[in-house]
Amino acid sequence: xxxxxxxxxxxxxxxxxxxxxxxxxxxxxxxxxxxxxxxxxxxxxxxxxxxxxxxxxxxxxxxxxxxxxxxxxxxxxxxxxxxxxxxxxxxxxxxxxxxxxxxxxxxxxxxxxxxx
Length: 116
Fold this sequence. Notes:
The chain is an alpha+beta fold. The protein has helices at residues 17-30, 64-72, 74-84, 103-114; strands spanning 3-9, 36-40, 55-61, 89-95. This is DUF1330 domain-containing protein.
């Protein structure tokens, strides 16, 4: 089952040189884990609620093991401060769903967890 790394990055005045260096090097850290960008910035529309930030990044991996291994890898940890020292944000790893996923299965799981 696929997994994604999702980043919600807050506003920043412009890309500092370190962030440019991070962007130039990140793909090399993804390649060993078959990571690929699904979303990397671009126009967005807020349809509900507030969105305190400007950048969204979503990277797909074959599974959670690869997503964790990428994030924790020496290559990624080496370049990570180039971004985190200049841009505030939140990054999460989340497991995806298969092609046969149906929303009712999630409801059933929530009911079982609640003891209903």
